[in-house]
Design a protein that fits this description.
The chain is of the alpha/beta class. The protein has one domain. The chain has helices at about 20-30, 30-45, 55-65, 75-85; strands at about 1-5, 10, 50, 90, 105. The radius of gyration is 14 Å and the shape is globular. About 20% of the residues are buried.
């Protein structure tokens, strides 16, 4: 998830569903009900808008995945590419995010 200058969030409309990873991790650690409650609460707190990926974001995401293939998921690469393209903040639960020029990051922990 990324947020832009107007404090709205942009979620790339990607079939990989980046939120699915957080739901899966929370579900394994604390159960399905906790996972659903946590993600629903988080989604209500941060307004968001779906954005379509364009060719430039797709290429940037592919280049990021190639460069950081052992660290970043493709879903994270898509989110980062969109954040960079929109000059927005990238919201993540990723603990080992590599430093990337111009990328503003807001990290969360649902544990």
């Amino acid at each position: 998830m990324v947020t832009g200058p107007r404090k709205s969030s942009f979620i790339p409309s990607d079939p990989d569903e980046p939120e699915g990873n957080q739901i899966c991790q929370l579900c394994r650690k604390r159960g399905k009900a906790h996972a659903e409650t946590s993600i629903n609460h988080f989604s209500k707190e941060i307004p968001h808008t779906l954005v379509q990926l364009d060719r430039g974001a797709e290429f940037r995401a592919g280049a990021l995945k190639c460069e950081h293939r052992d660290i970043l998921s493709y879903a994270d690469c898509i989110g980062i590419a969109v954040a960079l393209q929109l000059n927005a903040t990238f919201h993540t639960t990723e603990k080992d995010l590599p430093p990337l020029a111009r990328l503003r990051v807001k990290k969360y922990s649902f544990e």
